[in-house]
Specification:
The complex is a heterodimer of chains A (327) and B (252). Chain A contains 14 helices and no strands. Chain A is an all-alpha fold and 327 residues long. Chain A has a single domain, classed as Orthogonal Bundle (ABC transporter involved in vitamin B12 uptake, BtuC). In chain B, the strands form three sheets. In chain B, strands 6-7-8-3-9-10 form a six-stranded mixed β-sheet, sandwiched between helices. In chain B, strands 2-1-4-5 form a four-stranded antiparallel β-sheet, covered by helices on one side. In chain B, helix 3 runs parallel beside helix 6 and helix 5 packs across helix 6. The chains are: A mainly alpha (327), B alpha/beta (252). Chains A and B meet through helix 9 and helix 10 of A and helix 2 and strand 6 of B.
């Protein structure tokens, strides 16, 4: 595995320095996002932007943590929960809702209720599917991931079939629902999402040492006393919850998690989860807040951030493939 | 003491381990030998709870491996499999330190550090401590993994073909080390070997398997007989006594 990254042999110092720098940059980008180009009533601007900032931070943490956990579970650096069909499932659920209820009915619902419904459905379907798969294949992660790919295609085909027969007006509403919007986060959902993300993140933080052992592979991890099956189930549940939260807040995002997780591994030169989890989360926060601040207030653009991030993420994905990082 | 009763395991239509029952006493070095596909590695995996048997029961010191908590077993029994590859980039010392996980759960104490230094010393890896695993030769990496399971400080040590990527010098050093682990540290060592001559020279007991069943379980002296070896390996193996040890000659 040629990283091409020089790693300090003294150990401890480098990850600590990187984490401190990332934390400072994150605070700086948040401040930038809050203040850049602000005119008029400061009280209003700050309150308005603070909710957006909170939403972006939540999404960033949810995507970063879920991707790192998923990559540890599958022992693979080019996978993200998206490949398990998680975001196709979100697309399928949205399409089915518009198809069954109609867009007017759907948008008239309390967004909190809709969020709860979407999140619960996603977690339930994901768990049912993966529990069943895990029981059948006794924790064979490769079968699991392959099944995820197949189910992803199935959900997507199901959605596109429904989209074909949809009324054109309804379809345009649906299209809007299915694009990631970092600047029109559903503010009503912030409180509930914050609690959920906090609970899962704390749970992940308490597992950091066990996660380090899990990264050595199933057999070695069991040999060192990990209850592998139970831990895999717990992680899948945590990942499903985090992905539903971020999808419900901003819509599906495919490559962003991959991007921040691999940036974190590269910058740290350490694979300890006590380092990689916070680093990936901080990088995600920086990318979203700084990116949004620059796009929105410097270039005056509106929804382009998700497209840029997915574009860069896609390039990184191809680079990782070419460099053989999946080995 | 490892008690195995009526253990069977099938993969699809092929029965890899077929109704095996035996008892391995505590202490000493037991070698498991046999032709390819005899079920040696599968049996070892089942004792170490990495593979669950279709039927039967395995107990280590009276603890049923199917129902005992994984971390309780991890303080009693350590296993090293053949292929050890993972995405994480670790130094030798990081890897060896993982052997302390069952005891310290990731927070290393000075006692843990003593065990780590000792294991690194035993495997003569002192100069490689801060080297990354992917910078080492296959043999050095293999020794780092053995240091990790040694560091786990368990009564039982299970190794699946530990000589695989080692040259002659390191193979014989590894067998001497396992012998010392049994003699000086009082460990029960269970090791899958391909070379019957290493088994003959270094082990106290040999368990020979063929077609998923136990073909022989006894002392090396009793195994190293032309008729018995011919029966196990389906080939002619001459046996010569050299300097008090029996060697099988099957190369010509």
């Amino acid at each position: 595995m040629a990283d091409g990254i020089t790693v300090s042999r003294t150990g401890l110092s480098r990850p600590a320095v990187v984490l401190a720098l990332l934390a400072c940059t994150a605070v700086l980008s948040a401040a930038l996002f809050m203040t850049i180009g602000a005119r008029g009533d400061w009280g209003f601007v700050l309150a308005f932007r603070a909710t957006k900032l909170a939403g972006m931070a939540l999404v960033a943490i949810a995507i970063a943590v879920s991707t790192v956990l998923f990559q540890t579970l599958t022992q693979n650096r080019i996978l993200s929960p998206a490949i398990m069909g998680f975001d196709s499932l979100y697309v399928a659920i949205q399409t089915a809702l518009v198809f069954l209820l109609g867009s007017r009915q759907l948008t008239s619902f309390d967004p909190r209720l809709r969020f709860l419904f979407e999140a619960v459905t996603m977690v339930l379907v994901a768990l049912l599917l993966f529990r069943w798969l895990l029981a059948r294949h006794s924790g064979n992660i490769h079968v699991l991931v392959l099944s995820g790919v197949v189910f992803g295609v199935m959900f997507r085909s199901l959605a596109s079939m429904l989209q074909r027969v949809l009324d054109p007006n309804e379809f345009s509403v649906l299209q809007d629902l299915l694009f990631a919007h970092f600047n029109s986060i559903e503010t009503e959902l912030l409180g509930a999402s914050a609690i959920v993300v906090a609970v899962v993140s704390v749970a992940a933080w308490r597992m950091v040492h066990a996660l380090d052992v899990l990264a050595l592979g199933r057999d070695t991890a069991i040999g060192l006393g990990i209850e592998h099956k139970r831990m895999a189930n717990t992680l899948l549940l945590m990942i499903a919850v985090l992905v539903s939260v971020s999808a419900a807040l901003v819509g599906p995002v495919t490559f962003f998690g991959l991007l921040v997780a691999n940036l974190a591994y590269g910058l740290l030169g350490s694979q300890k989860h006590a380092h990689t989890l916070p680093a990936a989360a901080l990088i995600a926060v920086i990318a979203l807040t700084a990116g949004q601040a620059v796009l929105e207030h410097v270039f005056g653009m509106d929804t382009a951030l998700s497209i840029i991030i997915e574009f860069v993420g896609g390039i990184v994905f191809i680079l990782l493939l070419l460099r053989g990082a999946y080995r | 003491m490892i008690e195995i009763s009526h253990i069977s395991k099938s993969y699809g239509a092929s029965r890899v381990v077929d109704d095996v029952s035996l008892t391995i006493e505590a202490g000493g070095l037991t070698a498991i030998v046999g032709p390819n596909g005899a079920g040696k590695s599968t049996l070892l995996s089942m004792i170490a709870r990495l593979t669950s048997p279709d039927s039967g029961r395995i107990a280590v010191d009276g603890l049923d491996v199917a129902t005992t908590k994984s971390d309780v077993l991890a303080r009693r029994l350590a296993i090293l499999k053949q292929d050890n590859q993972f995405a994480a980039r670790l130094t030798v010392r990081d890897l060896v330190a993982f052997g302390r996980f069952p005891h310290s759960k990731g927070r290393l104490t000075s006692e843990d550090r003593r065990h780590i230094d000792e294991a690194i010393g035993w495997l003569e890896l002192g100069e490689f401590g801060n080297r990354f695993l992917d910078e080492l030769s296959g043999g050095q990496r293999q020794r780092a993994f053995v240091a990790m399971v040694l560091c786990q400080d368990t009564d039982y040590l299970l190794l699946d073909e530990p000589l695989n990527s080692l040259d002659m010098k390191h193979s014989s050093a590894m067998m001497k080390l396992l012998r010392r682990a049994a003699d000086e540290l009082g460990k029960t060592v269970l090791v899958v070997l391909h070379d019957i001559n290493y088994a003959s020279v270094y082990s106290d007991r040999i368990l020979a398997m063929r077609g998923g069943r136990v073909a022989f379980h006894g002392s090396p002296k009793d195994l190293m007989q032309p008729e018995i070896l011919a029966d196990i390996y389906s080939m002619t193996i001459k046996v010569h006594a050299i300097e008090g040890h029996r060697f099988g000659i099957y190369h010509v």
